[in-house]
Amino acid sequence: QVQLVESGGGLVQPGGSLRLSCAASGSLLSVNAMRWYRQAPGKQRELVAAITTSRGSTNYADSVKGRFTISRDNAKNTVYLQMISLKPEDTAVYYCNAVQAAQNYWGQGTQVTVSS
């Protein structure tokens, strides 16, 4: 089973930056794609960003495009989400997700709070 551990969440002021990390238990090459989701209180889980294993192609939700960047370091088996120009509406629990052989694996989530 793929195990994922997120870190890097915390409290940040509007306009600030934060980088989330997702450490995988195995090689990122063993999964089809890595994704970041977020879920705010009372709202559905939302796909934020994704990166494919085959080509490293990235996709972003319109709400974060231009502000968030997903990247990976295969040597460290880690996926990152660099967030800049953070807004209060970015406040949510952020989850790392791995897709492998039609299975989804999830991290425990890390809280991001954007508030002054």
Name the helix and strand elements from N-terminus to C-terminus, one letter apiece. Answer: EEEEEEEEEEE
| Rg on CA atoms, Å | 13 Å
Number of helices: 0
How many extended strands? 11
Instruction: State the separation between the terminal residues, measured CA to CA.
Output: 39 Å
Parts with pLDDT < 50 across at least 5 consecutive residues = none
Main pleated sheet: 7 strands, mixed
Mean pLDDT: 96
Question: Descriptors for this entry?
Answer:
mainly beta, globular, seven-stranded mixed beta sheet, 116 residues
Task: Provide a concise account of the structure shown.
This protein has strands at 4-7, 10-12, 18-24, 33-39, 46-52, 58-60, 68-73, 78-83, 92-100, 103-106, 110-114.
Overview of the structural elements:
With 116 residues, the protein is an all-beta fold. The chain is built from no helices and 11 strands. The protein has strands at residues 4-7, 10-12, 18-24, 33-39, 46-52, 58-60, 68-73, 78-83, 92-100, 103-106, 110-114. The model has no long low-confidence stretch (mean pLDDT 96).
